[in-house]
Design brief:
Layout lengths: L1 H9 L1 H11 L1 E13 L5 E14 L3 E5 L6 H9 L6 E6 L2 E2 L9 E4 L11 H11 L4 H14 L15 H12 L6 E5 L7 H16 L3 E5 L3 H7 L2 E6 L2 E7 H5 L14 H13 L14 H14 L8 H8 L1
């Protein structure tokens, strides 16, 4: 009794509770969803009791194959579906409270936009829905169009846009209200490797600005590049939850990066490993990803138009 009264009196316990609560943007508590047929009989359990927290200022990945419950979870968070049991809290409010949506930006897997409008008109229309003034809309529209790389196509009708360009407009539309929480469903769909890299850089930029991002994607490389934590769903059930760097770490393997080693030095290192009871799986040069190679070639092509990139192997064959 003395401990409780002391904690309340000095405000320590109460302030900590408020601090912890305010740092959680999305919280699900034993959240589940069952779809039923016309007669009310259980048809499928799309989501089994789910407990996750998405914290302020992080990029949280929601992963899983088709039918794993990702879309159901997103719809429950947005308040588009009612849970069968459990609760969803967004900004400490029940997900069914529509007022919270003023602080949310949502990019669905398929963007439904008016094809007869251009980019400026589209963003101005959505700005009106959020009651932005004419001056605010003009400034915000110009900022977003430049942010997503559509400055040269701002006056073209959306019917003339490629799928990747339409995706960029969809992202700009999701950001028009300067949201605190941004929910992205397959954001890199239809984008080429350069557009994909730019989209990932933009997502990281949003996090650096203090935004919270919930990312749903089938592109596992994209998730690995940008997400801080992930939840993996399968058949409506949470199978794994944690930080990306910790989940991917192979704990019984030691990796050493070095430059300029001679063959003799490599052999000596291998002997040291063996003397200490370890085994050497391989000693070789590391490989880049296909994305890194592609972007490097494009950059070099921009710097030296008309010149073909020559590989190290071709240089060696030329010397012979």
């Amino acid at each position: 009794m003395d401990i409780d009264s002391t904690a309340v009196a000095d405000g320590t316990e109460d302030s900590n509770a408020k601090s912890d609560s305010s740092s959680v943007v999305i919280e699900t508590r034993s959240l589940s969803k069952v779809y039923r047929d016309f007669w009310g009989r259980k048809k499928v359990q799309a989501l089994k009791p789910l407990d996750i927290e998405v914290k302020q200022g992080e990029i949280f990945g929601l992963l899983g194959p088709n039918g794993s419950g990702k879309s159901t979870t997103i719809k429950l968070i947005l308040g588009l579906l009612f849970p069968t049991s459990g609760r969803v809290l967004v900004f400490d409010q029940d997900a069914t409270e529509t007022k919270k949506n003023e602080r949310i930006g949502y990019l669905p897997e398929e963007s439904y936009l008016y094809k007869f409008l251009n980019a400026e008109e589209t963003l101005d229309f959505y700005g009106r829905l959020f009651d932005l003034s004419a001056a605010e809309r003009a400034a915000r529209v110009d900022e977003l169009i430049k942010m997503v790389g559509l400055d040269k196509a701002r006056h073209r009708q959306l019917r003339e846009y490629s799928k990747g360009m339409t995706r960029r407009v969809g992202l700009a539309q999701a950001l028009v209200n300067d949201p605190d929480l941004i929910m992205l469903d397959e954001p890199t769909t239809g984008l080429d490797p350069i557009g994909t890299r730019e989209m990932k850089d933009l997502i990281l930029r949003l996090r650096d600005e203090g935004k919270t991002v919930l990312l749903c994607s089938h592109q596992l490389a994209d998730v690995q590049d940008v997400c801080d934590r992930v939840a993996i769903l399968h058949q409506g059930e949470l199978k794994e939850l944690g930080r990306v760097d910790e989940l991917l770490k192979v704990k019984d393997v030691t990796e050493i990066h070095a430059r300029g080693l001679s063959d003799a030095a490599k052999k000596e290192i291998q002997e040291v490993i063996q003397r200490n009871g370890g085994t050497t799986d391989y000693i070789d040069n590391p490989t880049a990803t296909m994305e890194e190679l592609f972007l490097q070639i494009v950059r070099e092509s921009d710097e030296r138009p008309g010149m073909r990139r020559v590989s190290e192997r071709e240089l060696q064959e030329g010397d012979k």
